[in-house]
Amino acid sequence: MMRKLLQKIFRKPITWLANRFSSSPVRKDVFSSLSQLLENITLNKKGGPVLPFDMKTGKFIIFSDQHKGAKDLADDFRNAEPNYLAALNHYYSNDFVFINLGDSEELWENSPKTVIEKNRLSLLEEAKFLVAGRYHRIYGNHDLEWKYAIQQTMYLKPIFGDKLEINEGLVLQTTYDDKSYSIFLTHGHQGDQKSDGNPFSTWVVAAIWTPIQRFFEISIDTISDSFELVDKHNIMMYEWSATQKNLIFISGHTHKPVFASLDHIERLAKQLERARTDNDTAQTEYLQKQLEKRKAEYSGKKIVRTMAMPAYFNSGCCCFNDGDITGIEIAEGFIRLIKWETIEKESKRIVLEESPLFYLFDQLETNNKMS
Fold first, then answer.
1. Per the domain annotation, does 353 fall within a domain?
2. What is the per-residue pLDDT for 292?
């Protein structure tokens, strides 16, 4: 009882402190950083690979923001690990390419040595994709250390092997209707000085938040009072994607799933409205429960904005406090927002939303002609 009271007392002031004295994403910086990275990959051949793929046969699974920790009370991944391992087994067996989109390990709170020791099982499952030639790893702000060769060699390559490469982003390229289309992927912290190497932010997490999390069992990455900031960043990344030609942008970082520029809360609300119109009692009841559940995850959300151009996607995260994980699939000519959750003690894959790629490419082409 006392711990719950202290949780309420400490959560808001510490969150306020971190946001008050740290920077927030700045639109011009986000635009500049993303544009520079895209140019580096596609024109300068640095920053990450360009991977051609066939729209009908290419198979990719994109997960981000696992935040693997020390298996203690501050570890946001520990509840999600069973669903994560089940998902990796499924995608490995079905010949998917795994794109690990950053913040895979929580290195703000833990030493690389501790994280590697405590998460050897999931890391070995990831390494199976690399052995099969089906693995690409992107670094984020919480695992920025993996950008450097020394840390890679000391901690990751003993598990993954010398073929491991870690980049800032990558581009998938395909052809449709005799035109080239790109899918640009990066973690999404670019241009956000709060997250992008700011020493104060790192200190707040390591010196203040982690001891409080461990003692009071407070999680900062799943239930946040700063989702206005998160929404703001998602909107900036959408607005940048809308300035690009024939390009879809997929990021992580915000922990908030976005499909075709429509965020998770808005998508559920629209589906609920449709179910009520159709007098579908069972679906209405199910969606109401889902909406209430996710509103709790996204408490504090204030900005509601539907983004019309279907150019932006967000993989969500693999550290929801109920153990669910979300990701983006590209397979069979479709792009899908998927969730893995535990149902009757078994991990189940659920398709939350899907769209044929050709439909999105047609929409992008239409928008190009109108602009």
1. yes
2. 82
